[in-house]
Design the sequence.
């Protein structure tokens, strides 16, 4: 197993928080999210993203509204809920904590 | 040429080639299975369909309104396998997406041997083997021909056997499985166990066998029909183009087909008789050491390959002409072909000495033919010269095979 393969579960677990982060900036629809993630190590596919978003909506971290588009059918634009915002803040804190822990452990 | 299927993806119509439709259906079925317990199943499925529709739209142009199977496969690869937290297909996690295109979609798909009709020359056995071992189909075909030559024609039986037993790949999933996931020993053992359990039960085996025969007949029929269909188009053009309208052209073509078909049948029977009595077709000695019964099977096969499209062309003429005249054309054809058959027999009897001789000593010739045939069977099955048990088996099998073959020829 290569190091890259070992990181897979980490990336998978982080995906949800990255989506929160993307949505926090502005309302986005799925193709936008995919494009943003495409440039990173977290590139994903519709087959993964749609079920994940539906789970996050059920847990009330995100919500969507329908918006007409000039090309094609109306799209779902996702935005953060209050619960989602606090979850993202929590995650960022925890991430910072993890970072310091990792860096300090080696000393 | 490919059949096109129109589908509705979340409210939009798309034209797909049939294999593409099969893979899309397989994908959506897998997605549904994955989302079985998901409360938002309907919504997610709608989202997925919409995403597929968006991707499909990229492939369409003003003068290109059909999505090919390859394009659908690309779209589905881009979509990626549908996965939820509960069940994650192995080897396809979010992080390794950039490599996902080269992977099989839903986890470790089993690899199975199928007959693949697309691009097949006869039945698709070679294509299936090529997909299974991931080699070029031409190599497999050459291998089959070489093996057939080396074994004196016996290898043909392996092909025929596989043609009857190996299933056809129908759905996209079966197509995927035909070229599917890497092969391992456990899979072989599992498959063997599964097959043993299946075939131990003879009812199951008979059902499988019947299903396989039906399928084979249907495929064969479709193939011949397609061939006949092209002929039908030409016939149609010819008959509508004729100066006296459609019926005139058809009336001209019917006798041609009747005579040709009757002659072909006579030729086939004469060739078989000639082969069985003298061991050579009209003096031409069959090369190699192909057993007699294999040569006869090959002759019958050649006959049916030529005759079937002709029959379909004839039916096409019936349908092309107005309904009321259909009966007359059919009667006209039957009378003509029977007449030609009798005429040819009479002519051969009076003018060809060999044929005259054959009928003069019919009983003796018949038993010679029969013994030759039995001998060739026995020689193939076992090299031991005399074995009464085997004899009885072989001759009953030969009788059954030849009767059914003859019936099939005239059908």
Sequence:
């Amino acid at each position: 197993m290569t190091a890259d393969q070992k990181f897979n579960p980490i990336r998978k677990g982080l995906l949800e928080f990255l989506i929160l982060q993307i949505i926090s900036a502005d309302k986005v629809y799925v193709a936008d999210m995919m494009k943003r993630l495409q440039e990173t190590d977290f590139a994903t596919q519709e087959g993964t993203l749609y079920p994940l978003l539906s789970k996050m909506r059920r847990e009330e971290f995100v919500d969507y509204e329908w918006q007409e588009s000039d090309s094609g059918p109306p799209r779902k634009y996702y935005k953060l809920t209050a619960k989602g915002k606090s979850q993202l803040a929590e995650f960022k804190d925890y991430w910072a904590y993890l970072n310091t822990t990792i860096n300090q452990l080696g000393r | 040429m490919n059949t096109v299927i129109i589908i509705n993806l979340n409210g939009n119509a798309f034209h797909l080639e049939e294999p593409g439709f099969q893979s899309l259906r397989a994908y959506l079925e897998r997605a549904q299975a994955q989302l079985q317990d998901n409360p938002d199943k309907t919504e997610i499925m709608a989202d997925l369909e919409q995403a597929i529709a968006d991707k499909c739209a990229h492939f369409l142009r003003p003068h290109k309104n059909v999505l090919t199977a390859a394009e659908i496969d690309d779209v589905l690869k881009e979509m990626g396998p549908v996965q939820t937290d509960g069940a994650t297909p192995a080897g396809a996690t979010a992080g390794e997406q950039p490599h996902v295109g080269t992977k099989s979609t839903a986890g470790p798909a089993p690899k199975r041997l199928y007959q693949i009709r697309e691009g097949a020359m006869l039945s698709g056995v070679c294509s299936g083997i090529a997909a299974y071992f991931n080699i070029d189909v031409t190599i497999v075909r050459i291998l089959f021909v070489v093996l057939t030559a080396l074994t004196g024609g016996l290898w043909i039986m392996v092909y025929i056997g596989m043609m009857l037993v190996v299933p056809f790949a129908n759905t996209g999933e079966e197509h995927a499985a035909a070229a599917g996931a890497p092969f391992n020993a456990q899979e072989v053992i599992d498959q063997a166990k599964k097959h043993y359990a299946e075939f131990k039960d003879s009812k199951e085996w008979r059902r499988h066998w019947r299903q396989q025969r039906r399928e084979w007949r249907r495929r064969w029929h479709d193939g011949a029909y397609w061939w006949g269909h092209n002929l039908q188009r030409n016939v149609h053009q010819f008959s509508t183009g004729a100066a006296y309208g459609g019926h005139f052209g058809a009336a001209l073509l019917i006798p041609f087909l009747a005579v040709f078909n009757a002659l072909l049948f006579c030729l086939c029977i004469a060739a078989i008789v000639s082969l069985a009595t003298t061991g050579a077709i009209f003096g031409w000695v069959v090369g190699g050491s192909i057993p007699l019964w294999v040569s006869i099977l090959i002759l019958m096969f050649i006959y049916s390959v030529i005759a079937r499209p002709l029959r379909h062309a004839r039916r096409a003429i019936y349908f092309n002409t107005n309904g009321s005249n259909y009966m007359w054309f059919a009667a006209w054809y039957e009378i003509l072909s029977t007449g030609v058959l009798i005429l040819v027999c009479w002519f051969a009897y009076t003018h060809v000495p060999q044929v005259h001789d054959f009928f003069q000593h019919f009983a003796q010739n018949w038993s010679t033919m029969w013994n030759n045939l039995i001998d060739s069977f026995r020689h193939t099955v076992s090299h031991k010269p005399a074995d009464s048990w085997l004899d009885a088996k072989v001759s009953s099998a030969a009788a059954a095979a030849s009767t059914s073959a003859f019936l099939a020829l005239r059908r």
Observations:
- Chain B touches chain A at residues 10-12, 31, 34-35, 38-40, 43-44, 47-48, 50-51, 54, 57, 78-85, 88, 93-98, 100 (CB under 8 Å).
- The longest helix of chain B spans residues 202-241.
- The CA atoms of residues 146 and 409 of chain B lie 29 Å apart.
